[in-house]
Specification:
The complex is a heterodimer of chains A (381) and B (99). Chain A is α/β, with parallel strands linked by helices and 381 residues long. Chain A folds into two domains: 124 residues, Thiolase/Chalcone synthase (Peroxisomal Thiolase, Chain A, domain 1, 3-Layer(aba) Sandwich), CATH 3.40.47.10; 225 residues, Thiolase/Chalcone synthase (Peroxisomal Thiolase, Chain A, domain 1, 3-Layer(aba) Sandwich), CATH 3.40.47.10. Chain A is built from 14 helices and twelve strands. In chain A, the strands form two sheets. Chain A has a ten-stranded mixed beta sheet with strand order 3-2-4-7-1-8-12-11-9-10, with helices on both faces. A two-stranded antiparallel sheet of chain A has the order 5-6. In chain A, helix 4 crosses helix 14, helix 8 packs across helix 11 and helix 8 crosses helix 12. Chain B is mostly beta strands and 99 residues long. Helices cover 11% and strands 38% of the residues of chain B. Chain B is built from one helix and five strands. A five-stranded antiparallel beta sheet of chain B has the order 3-2-1-4-5. Chain B is globular and about 40 Å long. The chains are: A alpha/beta (381), B mainly beta (99). At the A-B interface, helix 5, helix 6, helix 7 and strand 5 of A face strand 1, strand 2 and strand 3 of B.
Amino acid sequence: MNITVAGIGMTKFGELWDASPRWLAGQAVTAAIRDSGVEKKSIQGLFVANMLSGMLGMQGHLGALFAEELGLSGVPAYTVEGACASGGLAVHAGVMSILSGQYDTVCVLGVEKMTDHKPELVSSALMGAGSNEERLAGATFPGLYAILARSHMEKYGTTEKQLASVAVKNHFHASLNALAQFTHPITVEQVLRSSCVADPLKLLDCSPVTDGAAAVILTKHQSKKSGVHIVASAVATDTLGLAGRKSLTELVATKQAALKAFTQAGVEQKDIQFAEVHDCFTIAEILAIEDMGFGRKGEVGTNMEKGIYTLGTAEHIVINSSGGLKGCGHPIGATGVKQIVEVTSQLRGVCGKRQVKQARVGLTHNVGGSGATAVVHILKT
Amino acid sequence: MISPVKIWRNQKHFTKLIGKTGRIVSWTMIRVPPDGFSEQAPYPLAVVRLDGGIHITAQVVDWENDQCVTNQKVVTVIRRTIDTTADGVIPYGVKVKPV
């Protein structure tokens, strides 16, 4: 597999009260097309990643909507929904469409507008990613990840302080990213003192509600401007609800998707210098690092506290240089596409203060729900 | 969204789960509830392994402070789940009670 990431674009992530979904999409796609040097008329397919528009805004049919908005009317356009993994899945669908031989060049757009609606409604709509049993039980996503966190703590001795150090690292990285939602560093004490959302997870263990869009132009052609390629694109699924899982201390879909991706790319964990992983909650980043084999089960918490995944440590993999979902923000459908934008930027060496040294191979990991979908991409220069 | 038809259809399934004992595998306390649950919050939510091996996710009711722990023995009971809807339907479902 060798798909060129020809162009990338993203908006500022945050509480963007005056920005509409159309405006956000326009900004991201226009930037990606300009960056690619590809002419708009050579785009043969549009893949739109979004989760909540139908449920919160009563607007479906986003493929056609954004094709019209972006001046791509006539082009085949699709909506891809896989909860918080919608973005990664849309990139996967875009890659598959090129590999099928039908399209040469496609645009993948991830967009989500979350702050137009009151928090309880957003929370309920997000539970659309869970099972009916979980919804009737009054579960929330912080609650489901809190259940995973407690299992991990009881089995491996992971501490609340170790969880907090994930948020501290990701806020530090986000403070070096002008497009991030949170550009202020935080301390472990601030995380531990923040209000409890679902024990043991506190407010600062959770990724925020975010508006934003990200877009990439993928092509089978070599690009004069960008030498970044997707060399693996893998997806795996698991039971929708937590109750169906054999283990509550790992996400099997992550393991399976990562294994497939490593095989496709012909690389091993040690070949990868940096990764954007799905830290919707602090425990999720620890699970991701363990389940993809970048750290041993039960040891990642301790290493997180030591700071080995933070920028500037040359001998270990850097995790979430963008600030991750926690620091950069988590506009659901946009997140998986933004991960590709960040890894491409790092591989181009244009990340300034947050540049990973000698970045040659990067990985993205995007999760839907409490682990029912996992998408892993590997990119190389 | 709550659909009276869906509630009617699902009751056949959930009543099969009533009166079964099991143990808490892991749990949390929901302090920021979703829409329709604000009157009940804060409430414990648990993944429970029922005797026989089925796992369910359910709210814990009628609990004392020392009973929200992993491995606590519980029994499944019928309780009202979400706030009554504009249709006047009172939705019921499975919750668990420490024993």
